[in-house]
Specification:
Rossmann fold, ten-stranded mixed sheet, 11 helices
């Protein structure tokens, strides 16, 4: 296991809110606004239109914006969404672009120097997820900045304010998962939150002492905590399938945020949509927002 760095104060000032105008997408906007407010930042409200799909063998020139009814309709939807939302004193900017989802989002992230992307997800699982795919997962698997994903069970959470008092940091001790640790530590410090260091042991051989496994794993978790006791840490070892164990602890602790690392794409397109991906299962069923950091 690599050495754990001292706590680094992070900033999440430039917040990109990616929307498809669905209700689950709109439910994520208050979280984007509150993040920007905490850091004195700005929200970029972005919608990506699909690229032109020529129906003729000879591609036609793009339709001018002032004659493109689809563009005008989406621009109106974007304007109405921003007008109906409560930004308070948080500055915001609307962005409408046409293209494939990820390359377009990547371009916005780079151009606007985005610190964190916020996106809602429909929470599709199993066969339905394989068929429909996941726009949110495509973003958090590729983005080099953190991505805050808001699932369908979280919609009501932000109506009375989103206080970060219980943060669950889920780790398998891999280099990928430890990429997320500085974010968990910084957010816990800034919000004086309890941070729950969690490792879920999926399988224990029958000839192995379960108490010994739990004790050794807890010692590994304790080593992740910086020496200065600036917040209230807890160390939890569970025995379960990883996703189910993370979700169970998040519900038991009434977590306000789950922080975890995710693997970058492997190059095989369909692997992004495997229904048994731990991160995908957690994001789709989490009772709170999930901050993923790509390894």
């Amino acid at each position: 296991m690599q050495a754990v760095p001292a706590t680094v104060r992070i900033t999440l000032s430039n917040v990109l809110f990616a929307t498809d105008f669905s209700e689950v997408s709109k439910a994520a906007l208050p979280f984007a606004t509150q993040l920007a407010q905490r850091y004195g930042g700005k929200v970029f409200v972005a919608h990506v239109m699909p690229p032109y799909e020529p129906y003729l063998s000879v591609p036609l020139e793009p339709v001018p914006v002032d004659l493109d009814r689809f563009w005008q309709r989406e621009q109106q939807s974007l304007t109405e969404l921003a007008a109906a939302s409560s930004f308070g004193d948080v500055p915001h900017e609307e962005i409408l672009q046409r293209g494939d989802l990820w390359p377009t989002i990547a371009d916005i992230i780079q151009r606007q120097k985005i610190d964190v992307v916020v996106a809602g997800t429909h929470g599709h699982r199993g066969l339905k997820k394989v068929v429909l795919g996941s726009s949110a997962e495509k973003i958090y698997r590729h983005a080099q900045c953190p991505v805050l994903t808001v699932g369908p069970e979280v919609a009501e959470r932000c109506k009375e304010g989103w206080d970060l008092k219980q943060i669950v940091f889920a780790t398998d001790f891999s280099e990928t998962s430890l990429q997320a640790l500085p974010y968990a530590l910084s957010l816990a410090e800034e919000n004086q939150a309890t941070i729950v260091f969690l490792h879920v042991v999926s399988l224990v051989p029958v000839d192995q002492d379960k108490d010994s496994v739990k004790r050794n794993t807890r010692e590994q978790l304790e080593k992740l905590m910086p020496a200065e006791p600036w917040c209230n840490p807890e160390f939890v070892v569970g025995f379960d399938f990883p996703a189910q164990g993370i979700l169970r602890v998040a519900r038991e602790r009434n977590a306000d945020l789950i922080v975890m690392g995710v693997k970058k794409p492997t190059g095989v397109a369909h692997t992004l949509h495997l229904p048994w991906s731990t991160a995908a299962e957690v994001v789709s069923s989490a009772p709170c927002p999930v901050l993923t950091v790509r390894g």
